[in-house]
């Protein structure tokens, strides 16, 4: 099948691209998973996020649920503290929302059977909303997803609506979710390793003796700091591969760059 | 392919089964979509929920994020009022959480191409987290999903943590989400109808002159009222098809029963 023949070419192109995400690198907690997958014959990752707690400031009176004009007040891929949220809220002008978003991973697969195998791994690890997309050009993407979430409005038109004790509590809830999320990631990694023997899908690509470090030649613009800083960025961050049937793989690539091809 | 040959049989079996969901019927807002799909050659629905606003009471000090022991304090598939939430909270003993959950639909498809077509319809309608599952026995499921959500803790160990003004606000936010959800459902329905000419996948099954009404012979147990009532039920309700690779289709079936087979 033409798509199968193209797979190697697609992988080579993808892994040689720059990381266009705002963060510019794979999240630490999933580096091992991403690199493992990219070393396998029949897979490569196209986008990822280990999971995060964020505070975003949206426009008030915006009836569009997809708030396009948001700024990020705070983001972390680890547990957070009350003070992080309070500090963020002090800068809020609109409708601030405190959110937890779970691990997301998009993997392009050589064949449908490869996607099915990876899908089993994802579901068995607790990522029950995972699913496969098959584009018109034959590109097969397996998306690791879960329903695990938290979304808590905290201010409206810049006015904080809750007391600090409530913020304490939602921070605690979000931290529990990050913790559970981490357990699922570890479970996913274990299942992935266990699946290595399951078939040639997980056979490894040749890896050069000198392991390539991620190479990002694209410099950040002056004044644009890492995503975890207070210089916030719009919502569409480093993770969003929209599984559309135009087979677009160019949104938010997190790549572990290999020089094997 | 054997799976393709089995499709007619699977469809017949599925459509003749009882609806085991607590509600016992397809949600009104999506009856037309469900019936349309079930009249098509290459598809049948296995579970659905039009979207809902719920207030659930979970066990406190339960570090398991998936709170297994929850009771439902309130549920609606339409907009809600502040008083609904306040009334529910008065009965809360543990950690009450106010949630919005979007439209979910699971459709078994005859061939992968049929799933791809339906997937395009779903994504174009705004359900961007939709995805396909292909089970070991060849069962192909397309799940319509979105990330659209709201999850707001309101009480901890039975103590309400917020003021009524905040509840007013989150009710307003949830109602906006239900409204947006409804627009997406309508968009999905329109796209579905537009796709009718796209191929034989959407060719219609023969429908008997006398349209079959949903037939549910399984009576509710005494005292067990509809889901929307105050006699709450555990969280696992009428929607949950877990896309696992055991190809289980028996959780939470919502069926529009046809007597065409």
Walkthrough of the structure:
Chains A, B: Pathway: tRNA modification; wybutosine-tRNA(Phe) biosynthesis. Chains A, B: It catalyses: 4-demethyl-7-[(3S)-3-amino-3-carboxypropyl]wyosine(37) in tRNA(Phe) + S-adenosyl-L-methionine = 7-[(3S)-3-amino-3-carboxypropyl]wyosine(37) in tRNA(Phe) + S-adenosyl-L-homocysteine + H(+). Chains A, B: Residues 9-192 form the tRNA wybutosine-synthesizing protein domain. Chains A, B: Keywords: Methyltransferase, S-adenosyl-L-methionine, Transferase, tRNA processing. 2 copies of one chain form a homodimer. With 261 residues, chain A is of the alpha+beta class. Chain A has one domain (2-252): tRNA wybutosine-synthesizing-like (SSo0622-like fold, 2-Layer Sandwich), CATH 3.30.1960. Chain A is 29% helix and 20% strand. Chain A is built from 5 helices and 10 strands. A 4-stranded antiparallel beta sheet of chain A has the order 1-5-7-6, sandwiched between helices. In chain A, a hairpin with a 2-residue loop joins strand 9 and strand 10 (159-160). The longest helix of chain A is centred in the last third of the chain and has 31 residues, at 164-194. Chain A is elongated and about 55 Å long. Chain A starts with a helix and ends in a 67-residue tail after the last helix. Mean pLDDT of chain A is 77; it is low at 206-261. Chains A and B meet through helix 4, strand 6, strand 8 and helix 5 of A and helix 4, strand 6, strand 8 and helix 5 of B.
């Amino acid at each position: 099948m033409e798509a199968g023949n193209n797979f190697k070419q697609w992988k080579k192109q993808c892994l040689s691209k720059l990381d266009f995400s705002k963060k510019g690198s794979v999240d630490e907690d999933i580096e091992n998973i991403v690199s493992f997958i990219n070393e396998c014959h029949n897979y490569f990752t196209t986008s990822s996020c280990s999971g995060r707690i964020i505070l975003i400031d949206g426009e008030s009176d915006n009836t569009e649920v997809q708030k396009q004009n948001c700024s990020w007040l705070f983001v972390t891929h680890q547990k957070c503290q009350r003070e992080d949220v309070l500090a963020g809220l002090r800068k809020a002008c609109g409708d601030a929302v405190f959110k937890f978003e779970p691990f997301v991973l998009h993997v392009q697969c050589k064949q449908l059977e490869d996607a099915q195998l990876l899908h089993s791994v994802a579901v068995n690890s607790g990522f029950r909303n995972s699913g496969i997309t098959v584009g018109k050009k034959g590109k097969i993407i397996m998306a690791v997803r879960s329903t695990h979430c938290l979304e808590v409005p905290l201010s409206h038109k810049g006015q904080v609506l809750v007391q600090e004790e409530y913020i304490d509590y939602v921070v605690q809830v979000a931290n529990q979710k990050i913790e559970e999320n981490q357990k699922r990631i570890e479970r996913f990694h274990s299942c992935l390793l266990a699946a290595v023997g399951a078939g040639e899908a997980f056979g490894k690509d040749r890896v050069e003796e000198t392991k390539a470090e991620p190479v990002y030649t694209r410099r950040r613009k002056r004044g644009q700091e890492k995503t975890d800083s207070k210089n916030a960025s719009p919502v569409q961050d480093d993770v969003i591969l929209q599984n559309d049937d135009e087979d677009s793989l160019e949104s938010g690539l997190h790549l572990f760059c290999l020089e094997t091809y």
